[in-house]
């Protein structure tokens, strides 16, 4: 059985169009926005003992540790499609060399020298910043490292002149929704994943 997947903005005309073409609704996700220019961010926090905050730019000579962290955290994201990063060269082309990736604003939290959590930043080079991914390796969860990394990235984005921050969350991803609410993000739109089975 083959399946086609599409994201549809959660509006009646869009949903009706998908359904007329044989798609059925599946999971949903939120788009969230944060006013970096006028809003308040939680204060920056000193990393706990043994934790160091670095940027992705610090891994320019060898980005493989960032790849490995992205691979283990992405495999746990809620999704209709199983995600598995095994091709390092493909990741370099599609993620590390992505034209929107801002390595200077992407924060990586290291525990005893090992990458444990990160918050990946995309920017448009003007005023908009977006979190492309935030995650923590399983063995380091429950220590607030994702929040620490994202807070650092947001503060540096604001200092660099970015005025709007965006992110997205699966509607069932309660831990990240709680973190983004803590930062002050507000839901600005919703999309629905539609699936069509072929054959």
Give the topology:
Blueprint: E1 2-9, H1 12-20, E2 24-35, E3 51-55, H2 64-74, H3 88-96, E4 107-111, E5 114-123, E6 128-136, H4 145-159, E7 164-170, H5 174-183, E8 186-198
Provide a descriptive summary of the structure in words.
By secondary structure, the chain is α+β, with helices and mostly antiparallel strands. It has a single domain, classed as Aminopeptidase, CATH 3.40.630. The protein contains 5 helices and 8 strands; from the N terminus they run βαββααβββαβαβ. It has an 8-stranded mixed beta sheet with strand order 1-8-2-7-6-5-4-3, sandwiched between helices. A hairpin with a 4-residue loop joins β5 and β6. The radius of gyration is 18 Å and the shape is globular. The protein starts with a strand and ends with a strand. The relative contact order is 0.28.
List keywords for this structure.
single chain, 199 residues, alpha+beta, Aminopeptidase, 27% helix
Query: Residue share in helices?
Result: 25-40%
Cα distance spanning the termini? 6 Å
Instruction: Give the class from helix and strand content and strand pairing.
Output: alpha+beta
Give the domain tally: 1
CATH-derived architecture: 3-Layer(aba) Sandwich
> Could you tell me the mean pLDDT?
92
Q: What is the CATH topology assignment? A: Aminopeptidase
The strand count comes to 8
State Rg: 18 Å
Portion of residues in beta strands equals 25-35%
Helix count, DSSP H or I runs of 4 or more residues: 5
CATH class descriptor: Alpha Beta
Low-confidence segments: none
Describe the strand arrangement of the main beta sheet, using strand numbers.
1-8-2-7-6-5-4-3
């Amino acid at each position: 059985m083959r399946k086609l997947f599409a994201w549809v903005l959660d509006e009646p005309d869009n949903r009706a169009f998908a359904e007329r073409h044989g798609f059925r609704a599946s999971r949903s996700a939120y788009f969230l926005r944060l006013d970096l220019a006028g809003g308040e961010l939680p204060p920056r926090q000193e990393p706990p003992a043994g934790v160091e905050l670095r940027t992705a730019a610090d891994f320019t000579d060898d980005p493989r540790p960032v790849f490995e962290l992205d691979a283990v955290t992405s495999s746990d994201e809620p999704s209709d499609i199983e995600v598995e990063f095994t091709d390092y060269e493909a990741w370099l082309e599609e993620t590390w060399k992505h034209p929107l990736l801002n390595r200077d604003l992407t924060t990586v939290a290291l525990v005893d020298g090992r990458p444990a959590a990160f918050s990946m930043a995309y920017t448009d080079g003007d005023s908009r910043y977006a979190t492309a991914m935030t995650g923590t390796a399983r063995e380091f969860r429950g220590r607030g490292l994702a929040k620490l990394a994202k807070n650092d990235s947001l503060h540096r984005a604001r200092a660099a002149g970015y005025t709007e921050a965006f992110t997205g969350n699966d509607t069932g991803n309660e831990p990240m929704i709680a973190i983004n609410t803590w930062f002050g993000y507000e839901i600005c739109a919703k999309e629905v994943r539609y699936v069509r089975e072929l054959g």
